[in-house]
Amino acid sequence: MITTRGGYGRVTGNTCLWCCHGFTLLEIMLATLILALVVSMITLSLSGSLRVVDATLDQGDLYYRAQVAMERIGQDLESAVLGADGEFIGQPVENGETRQTILHFTSMAHQVFDPKNGRQGMAVIEYQLMPDPENSDQLLLLRSDQVAVPQGKRADSRNIGKNDFLLTDHLRSVAFTYFDARGEEHDSWDTRVEPDASADEKKRKHRLPAAIGCTLVYWLDAESKTDLRFQTRVVLPTGMISAKGQ
Fold first, then answer.
1. Which pLDDT band holds residue 2 (cuts at 50, 70, 90)?
2. For labeling, which of 25, 118, 125, 190 is most exposed (least CB within 10 Å)?
3. CB-based contact 219:137 (threshold 8 Å)
4. Has residue 22 been placed in a domain?
5. Could you give the number of structural domains in the chain?
6. pTM assigned to the model
7. In angstroms, how far apart are the furthest CA atoms of the chain?
8. Is 87 inside any structural domain?
């Protein structure tokens, strides 16, 4: 039944009221505000999660770089030898603007990348540090590898290839420390002696270190000045043998 009262309609029974109205502008604005708050909270949560994921991936990448570099450095140094034609020279690291050789030694860990033209044997290995041309805040660690040639045959060494490749990048700093037979730490090591040096001086100086420490510091975030530090210590068997023979 439909009745009217005072000019307004009213529906009895199970029908709706004629006087029902829609949402007001205030209600729409309030609903929009609540929706915007919910969306912003979800966005912040997702962006934070994405930043965590990115940071985790970046750290994983640096851990992988450090693992590869440390394994290569360890294998090179563990196979280091000291002969009449090969000296061990470790220089203090100075993070300057030019390329510098920080470690020079002879090792049995020669890498042959071309089996057809390559040549097995001892190698003269050098580690060189230089600024990254694409990012002045970062450093590159390079490794060069060339077959060691006896002094009398060096005229024919021009046909022997030299392997020079990037060992690792994204570096903030690199440090090598050298330990003698007594466990004392040195920031450099040089086995070269003067021809007129005494026998005692030659015996004392012309020997490999007993162990070498290596520290690689990688940039994690250059803007916030955060980094990751990796350290290892490599024992040189040849250096330990000569240390026991003292």
1. very low
2. 25
3. yes
4. no
5. 1
6. 0.71
7. 128
8. yes
111 is a domain residue: yes
pLDDT of residue 95: 66
Q: How many C-beta atoms lie closer than 10 Å to residue 163's C-beta? A: 17
Cβ contact 170:138 at 8 Å = yes
Is the pLDDT assigned to residue 233 strictly greater than 60?
yes
d(CA 209, CA 27) in angstroms, rounded, equals 80
The DSSP code sequence of the chain is -EEEETTEEEE-TTSPPTT-----HHHHHHHHHHHHHHHHHHHHHHHHHHHHHHHHHHHHHHHHHHHHHHHHHHHHHHTEE-BTTB--EE------SS-EEEEEEEES----S-TTT---S-EEEEEEEEEETTEEEEEEEEEEEEE---GGGGGGGGGS-EEEEEEEEEEEEEEEEEE-TT--EES-EE----TT--HHHHHHHSS--SEEEEEEEEEEETTTTEEEEEEEEEE-HHHHHHHHT-
Contact 40, 47 (CB under 8 A): no
Residue 11 lies in a domain: no
Domain span including residue 190 = 52-244
d(CA 204, CA 190): 11
